[in-house]
Write a structure and sequence with these properties.
Elements: H1 13-28, E1 32-38, E2 44-51, E3 63-65, H2 71-78, E4 82-84, H3 87-93, H4 95-100, E5 106-113, E6 118-126, H5 136-154, E7 167-169, H6 182-190, E8 194-198, E9 204-207, H7 209-215, H8 219-222, H9 227-230, H10 237-249, E10 253-258, E11 264-272, E12 275-282, H11 298-301, H12 323-338, H13 342-356, E13 361-368, E14 371-378, H14 382-388, E15 391-392, H15 399-406, E16 410-412, H16 415-421, E17 433-441, E18 444-453, H17 461-498, E19 509-516, E20 527-533, E21 538-546, H18 551-569, H19 574-588, E22 594-602, E23 607-613, E24 619-623, E25 626-629, E26 648-652, E27 658-662, H20 674-687, H21 693-704, E28 714-721
Parallel strand pairs: 2-7
Antiparallel strand pairs: 1-2, 1-6, 2-3, 4-5, 5-6, 8-9, 8-12, 10-11, 11-12, 13-14, 13-18, 14-15, 16-17, 17-18, 19-28, 20-21, 21-22, 22-23, 23-26, 24-25, 24-27, 27-28
């Protein structure tokens, strides 16, 4: 904890964290900082403190899934420093974030950890002129600041709930008193050119007489307003974006604008940690042809607010959507394209779209057999959901049915507004305002999304426009997700049918098995495992991997398992089992190859007999703190040569020993050496507690893939010879 920074102004942990974050920003030379904490109830990150940036800029990032493709989530998951040297690198590594932040800056993200846990992460941003790389000194400051934030969290009682909005704190600059007094004001008034000052919220905090004259509006009407809101000829997302560029990049920005009456003005924005100084001058020459005109550009016209239906409250007068709303739409659209399952979509809407529009309730329904069946909700009790579920699609007595019928969103600002349009519609949820968004694709109703509010809410024009645009994107995302879930369910059922339903029990042998398919894929994996009981004291353990991911690979895997089972139970030795299965593959004339490891376990003699067909060798722990890789001379893959020979290797399996068979997906990590990963697993197996095989097998997988995002199928079969009691 830093001196004089242990406690915030109000003594709360939130304030203390905000003050500590400001200290981190000053110490590292950054211009912007944000602190995220991990929520207790869900794998979500919440922004709890913000420094150097207006809160509205951070709206898309207030709450993020821990799995989100953003730097801070990667830093927390991998427990490392993530450094982004510029916009080009951001666009390459994090395209979704780059779409919302198309500005020049450098960024660092690192985890905030304590002695026993990870609390969250901190994000720091530097101005556009920062070098693309980071120095060891900067890295040291970032690491030490993260440790001190972790210590502050560890030494304080954790609040029962994280705040809904981040605590805002400024980075105070030390100035000479004369620079902030009347002398500075007098100096600016004497200048023949216009001078203004904006805070980070974009509001005018100072304007001299020359600037007011050039802008055509008195100083008293400009102070406290945003120029693009108080001056109609600046009401364009293009001009607001220049201000956003200055805030985030902390670099000078120059642009011109055509004032009403045809006069062209030059604006020069100079930002620092306390705000933005603006120089306003008259341009003598003619306005260039490419200068933005007063009319809103195509960017703002691309998503106009549609006419509201007669049943709902009229939309207020609209202007071009704000730049923040447009970037928010881009961010949410990118997130919707990345949702894969229906569950992903429901979580995305609840975690990002609801907070973005200040809503508290969500009902997402899918059209199914002429009814709207609820597939996800947030903020409703179970009895309300039950009463709202499975409403008929064709009813015109409810706003959801009407919205789907005519394809037009409906917005209701309060219960009275809803009752006037639908007097017979039951109001059972206690909500006070609603947005009914029909989800339609080429005239086909897909479902309905209802956002609701705990208090009356007036929907602005840009809110209606953005929500209407999002409804089309949500419809496509929902249609894709339902199709994916259907296909994935079939694939999962096929995969499970090809793997053993349960493993046999054998006195003196503890067994655990795991099969983890790669990611969200719809293709059937070819990894398999099996345990065959040969007699009361002997078993055969098998693990293998069919080449490729396809239905053909899965079918061949089933045939290989059947062949091995038949030969093993007929009394064949390990080498004979593999040789005969190899000849079967030749008879099947398959183009696919199979890696396989067969291990015969003799519990009476405490012995292993193994043969391998090009498979990765197993790990063996013969005693506590003593483990290694079994040295097996593998034969060729099954399906290559019908005359192939498969050498047999014998090893002891004393009581208490652990044998771990696995496919290559466990140890083949992108960008890492297989030998190093395997050595780390051997060390983990040697030191781990082996009393619970279920826990041990999970710890092995987690050691290899701590983030859980394995890129290939993983199969693991763990055998433990029970110690003699």
């Amino acid at each position: 904890m830093w001196p004089d920074e242990a406690q915030g102004g109000d003594g709360s942990l939130d304030a203390a964290l905000a003050v500590a974050l400001a200290g981190t920003v000053r110490r590292t030379g950054a211009s912007i900082g944000g602190l995220y904490l991990i929520e207790e109830a869900a794998p979500m990150l919440r922004l709890v403190a913000l420094c150097g940036l207006p809160i509205e800029f951070s709206a898309p990032w207030h709450r993020l899934p821990l799995s989100a493709p953003v730097p801070v989530a990667d830093a927390i998951r991998d427990d490392r420093l993530v450094w982004i040297g510029g916009q080009e690198e951001m666009a390459r590594r994090y395209p979704r974030a780059a779409a919302v932040l198309p500005y020049q800056f450098a960024l660092a993200a690192t985890a905030v950890t304590g002695t026993h846990r990870c609390w969250g992460g901190v994000v720091l941003m530097w101005p556009a002129d920062h070098p693309r790389g980071t120095t060891p000194r900067e890295r040291g400051h970032i690491a030490s600041s993260a440790r001190l934030l972790g210590r502050l969290l560890e030494d304080s009682p954790r609040p029962s709930a994280l705040p809904e909005q981040p605590h805002i704190v400024s980075v105070d600059l030390v100035r000479h008193p004369a620079q902030t007094g009347l002398a500075a004001v007098d100096y600016l008034e004497r200048l023949p050119e216009g001078a203004m000052a904006l805070d980070f919220e974009g509001r005018v905090t100072f304007v001299n007489t020359a600037a007011a004259r050039l802008l055509g509006r008195g100083a008293e009407r400009l102070l406290g307003t945003r120029p693009w809101q108080s001056l109609s000829w600046l009401d364009s997302p293009v001009y607001e974006d220049h201000y956003r560029t200055a805030v985030i990049s902390r670099a000078p920005v120059f642009f011109s604008a055509l004032r009403a009456g045809g006069q062209c003005l030059d604006f020069q924005l100079y930002p620092d940690a306390s705000g933005i100084s603006v120089r306003v001058t008259r341009r003598a020459e003619e306005r260039p042809a490419d200068l933005p005109s007063v009319a809103p550009p195509a960017l703002a016209e691309s998503s106009p607010a549609p006419p509201a239906p007669a049943e709902s409250s009229p939309a207020p007068p609209t202007s071009a959507a704000s730049t923040g709303r447009l970037y928010q739409l881009v961010h949410l659209a990118a997130a919707l394209t990345e949702s894969v399952t229906v569950r992903d979509l429901v979580e995305l809407v609840a975690d990002q779209i609801l907070p973005a529009f200040g809503a508290q309730g969500l009902v997402l329904s899918a059209a199914d057999a002429g009814r709207l069946k609820i597939i996800g909700q947030h903020g409703y009790s179970a009895d309300v959901v039950e009463r709202l579920d499975a409403l008929p699609l064709d009813t015109h007595l409810t706003p959801a049915g009407q919205a789907l019928s005519d394809g037009t969103p409906a917005f209701f600002t309060d219960p009275g507004d809803l009752a006037r349009s639908y007097p017979d519609a039951p109001q059972i949820s206690g909500k006070q305002a609603w947005a009914f968004l029909p989800l339609i694709i080429t005239g086909r109703p897909v479902g309905c999304c209802i956002l609701s509010y705990d208090h009356p809410h007036v929907f602005t024009g840009d809110e209606r426009a953005v929500l209407t645009s999002l409804a089309g994107l949500m419809a496509q995302a929902l249609d894709r997700a339902r199709l994916y879930d259907t296909k994935h369910g079939l694939v999962h059922e096929l995969q499970q049918a090809l793997l053993p339903r349960r493993l046999p029990t054998l006195t003196g042998l503890d067994v655990a098995a795991r099969y983890l398919p790669a990611g969200h894929g719809l293709e059937v994996g070819g990894d398999f495992y099996d345990l065959l009981r040969l007699n009361d004291t002997t078993a055969a353990a098998v693990i293998g991997d069919v080449e490729g991911h396809s239905v053909a690979a899965a079918a061949l895997m089933g045939q290989v398992r059947t062949a091995i089972h038949a030969h093993a139970t007929a009394g064949a030795t390990p080498d004979e089992v593999l040789s005969r299965t190899n000849r079967l593959l030749a008879d099947l004339d398959s183009d696919l190859l199979v890696a396989c490891l067969y291990a015969q376990v003799d519990l009476a003699r405490h012995q292993l007999t193994l043969a391998s067909a090009g498979h990765v060798p197993p790990l063996l722990r013969q005693a506590p703190h003593r483990a290694g890789i079994l040295d097996i001379d593998p034969g060729p893959l099954l399906g290559i040569d019908t005359r192939a020979h498969y050498p047999v290797v014998a090893a002891s399996l004393p009581p208490g020993a652990v044998l771990a068979l696995h496919t290559d997906g466990l140890v083949e990590l992108p960008g890492r050496d297989v030998a190093q990963t395997t050595a780390e697993l051997v060390q983990h197996l040697a030191e781990a507690d082996d009393h619970d095989t279920e826990h041990l097998i999970d710890s092995l997988i987690h050691r290899a893939w701590p983030a859980g995002r394995h890129t290939d199928d993983v199969a693991v079969l763990l055998l433990r010879a029970r110690p003699v009691e």
